[in-house]
Design brief:
This protein has 369 residues and is α/β, with parallel strands linked by helices. The protein contains 13 helices and 19 strands. Helix 1 packs across helix 3 (46-56) and helix 7 packs parallel to helix 8. The structure holds pyridoxal-5'-phosphate (PLP). Catalyzes the interconversion of L-alanine and D-alanine. May also act on other amino acids.
């Protein structure tokens, strides 16, 4: 990789392939993988990541919203795409672009059914989302018989899969709760399958679920964060490779004297001679203001440079008093050594939030190393 000359997010497709193979190695031979590429592929580049994963052999893609699925179709992705959170206003584009909706309530079921009928569809694939305890989206147990009555008396839609989502698959202290979720999913999905004249496939594990509940793999697993290099567990993360590296450059260096202040609100007061570097990345790019005033840091020439003063919209200033560096030098915000997980933990956040927040104005550079 040549040196960064501006702020850029590097997407390493070799790391993605490594993570895919690692997660695949945890699956039974018959279990398929659904790659979760919502939120621009967890902030990376949904199209590039999906093209690579399609080549690697993932069976299915999942996005959160219909427009994310449209973007993949526009880029030529042919694999089936599950839309986890469709809204009635998206039904038209969903059918037009062959996207497969998650149906999570009786109202959605009836709404999508009448839409599919109006569009002269037969056996349009839908996925039944079961609420087993996350209490976010999904049918509750007592709605299943009503749903089945509706489904079995028509031919416009067909249940391709039944799925649920775990609330705390990464947390060993919640094992009992998770096992209860899995049991409920098993019971409800059995009920549905025995009422249908065909057999939908089943899935309920996310990345941490793959690691912690291998007995619940069913036909397919849905992995997001693991593909991008984070495992919600030290030993797993150590075996994965972060896909995204966020780099920037030093725009300007300032030599500050005692009594000077740095940045908005004069938040940093210089006590002893301080050398600062101004970087072209700010809170509009996804670097939260919470990282300011010494909380977060970047890496310059292998040394940690704390973010000082308040994070501005388009810039941050970092303390480089003890770092040999000059204007134009490359800066690493996060990557393989100082990771998005390390940085996000400084503000009690998680890598999911930091990597998905990286703004679309930052150039994506795709490579393999
Ligand atoms: C985001 C999401 C996933 C992926 O979870 P990871 O922890 O990133 O693997 C799986 N299933 C559903 C329903 C999701 O919303």
């Amino acid at each position: 990789m040549s040196k960064a000359l501006e702020t850029q997010l590097e997407i390493n497709l070799s790391a993605l392939a490594h993570n895919y193979h690692f997660l695949k190695s945890k699956l039974h031979a018959a279990t398929k993988m659904m790659a979760v590429v919502k939120a621009f592929g967890y902030g990376s580049d949904a199209v590039e990541v999906s093209k690579e994963l399609e080549k690697l052999g993932v069976a299915y893609f999942a996005v959160a919203y219909a427009n994310e699925g449209v973007e993949l179709r526009n880029a030529g992705i042919k694999s089936p795409i599950l839309v986890l959170h469709p809204l009635p206003t998206n039904f038209n584009v969903i059918i037009e672009r062959c996207l497969e909706p998650s149906i999570y309530s009786l109202k959605m079921l009836e709404g999508f059914l009448s839409f599919a009928k109006q569009k002269n569809q037969t056996d349009y694939p839908v996925h039944l989302k079961i609420n087993t305890g996350l209490n976010r989206l999904g049918f509750s147990e007592n709605e299943i018989s009503e749903a089945l009555k509706i489904i079995t008396s028509q031919s416009y839609i067909k249940v391709r899969s039944i799925f649920s989502h775990l609330a705390a698959s990464e947390d060993p202290n919640e094992k009992e709760f998770t096992e209860r979720q899995l049991k409920l999913f098993s019971n409800i999905s059995e009920t549905i399958i025995s009422a249908l004249p065909y057999k939908p496939f089943r899935h309920t594990l996310n990345t941490s679920g793959i690691i912690n509940y291998p007995e619940a793999q069913y036909d397919l697993v849905r992995s997001g964060i693991g593909l991008y290099g984070f495992g919600n567990d030290k030993t797993i993360t150590a075996q994965l490779q972060p896909v995204a590296t966020l780099k920037t450059v030093i725009s300007q260096i300032h030599e500050l004297q005692p009594g000077d202040t740095l940045g908005y609100n004069r938040a940093f007061k210089v006590v002893s001679k301080t050398r600062t570097a101004t970087l072209p990345i700010g809170h509009a790019d996804g670097i939260s203001r919470a990282y300011g005033n010494g909380v977060g840091w970047v890496t310059i020439n292998n040394k940690k440079a704390p973010i000082q003063g308040n994070v501005c919209m388009d810039m941050i200033m970092v303390d480089v008093t003890n770092i040999d560096c000059k204007e134009g030098d490359e800066v690493i915000v996060f990557g393989t050594v100082s990771t998005a997980e390390n940085l996000s933990n400084e503000i009690n956040s998680i890598p999911y939030e930091l990597i998905t927040a990286i703004s679309q104005r930052i150039k994506r550079v795709v490579h393999r190393i």
